[in-house]
């Protein structure tokens, strides 16, 4: 918490469980609410940009924990006039109440990814840096009675996409508006229809601001004291949603933007929005040979979009063309240079997917269901999601004839990169940008529960945060015993984990399975860590949600394709491996042809009694019911194990037990 000031309620309650704080535990909810009321803890509030309604609160920000001032050179080196647009929310008082920027920063952290600069997270007292995507960064900075918003492009502010600028401005405006209303109500102020802040827009100097009131007039010019027309910047921050074409007064790309080499994503946008013949003629005009074009057409006879994109990529890689050369080529061919303006446009998404879902990272299950529906756009999708050409070509080569596998690996590769949070919203925008549309995504998500999806994300993030400690520190045998007994992994899962020679690799395999299986596997795994000596890690992994493993209430035992005897045997896994001496039992099983003599030797090769019993259980869980019955008979023959045999035989099996094990076996 000391690094970024963020905390979840469960973390604070965990602190209060210490002996020194036990007396306040009965009043924990009231005390927590009081901390919020006094602005000691700030809610990470988010608002639906379509309805303005509040979204569920997950994280909290503790401003007093974040006292370090910004000592990086990020603002100086990155927020330069050549790359940055700026506006300010100016409050009418001489100073902003601390609750407002604190809550705004919380909201920003929930909407966008905290940026790292030179190995440090850009979160300091009064300033936060965030990544919108791989080209655009956001900086929110509190100075006196102003909240400054900077939108920074990786290469040139002339390439800032107005739709992005407008959406960022709208998000912060709506959030700040709602926070202001809440703050006024909490201090019993009479709610006013007037906002407590005004919006002002900066010129390229970044320290000269003009009020919005002056800019909303119909005049085409509004000059600042430096003689700049601020109206141009204002239009970028306030693009009309229905606007698809350039403004009548659009001058095309700026000089600085024209000097840049187009990114792969910008070339993709250009190829999607240009006719095939026009791009063919432009490429030849810029020096590409007809044979190169013909080869591309021959390689992709049914995919003209691919031909157009690869044509532009050829010009970039072989001739290092800039926007200037593309612009000059279009002019010489008497084609409007506004054709290039499409690289600064983003198609509007009319989404019917809930904001709660859009802000989540797609789970493995969503990726698995989505991949077969994407079709033959793996290259375009990969480029739009920020993968390199080399990465996509490697994926296509790896899965040469398996289109679904190609799409799946593109999505997994994109999802691994957390430079920008890989949300479903980003994926939806990518589908729309490349002309696919988001219907396939909507179809996959129609039955998805936002709470379950958020739980998956929390689980994955907690494991990622503690991955190195888990991989390096834990021994898995007893934890796997615990998970087997609780039915959250199968005997095959255990074998897949233990087939790895090194403990580190076994731990990695276990984490992969826990992430894939989700609840209740995660909670059982955390309990196992706590039970077997890894309480510190268990505390760090603890999550504040109630597991709902499988909806089994509507099914009876006979509806699950899982034999009852296997459930009974596995629920007693830990008891069997710790309590029995295997020798006489194995002898009995050999005489009844349940296991072979070679199986007996394999069991005997274990180094400890527990290892030998684990091998025996591994075999029994793969046998039919006759093998199970013979095992019970072997136990019953020895008076020491008669009670254990009776316990196994009478073990209660619920629909939830069946559903949990079925989830592992399917």
UniProtKB/TrEMBL annotation:
Source species: Mytilus edulis (Blue mussel)
InterPro entries: CARD, CRADD, DEATH-like_dom_sf, Death_dom
CARD domain sequence ranges: 455-531, 569-637
Residue intervals of the Death domain: 380-436
Transmembrane segments: none
Molecular functions per Gene Ontology: death domain binding; protease binding
Pfam families per UniProt: CARD
Protein name: Death domain-containing protein
Gene Ontology BP annotations: regulation of apoptotic process; signal transduction
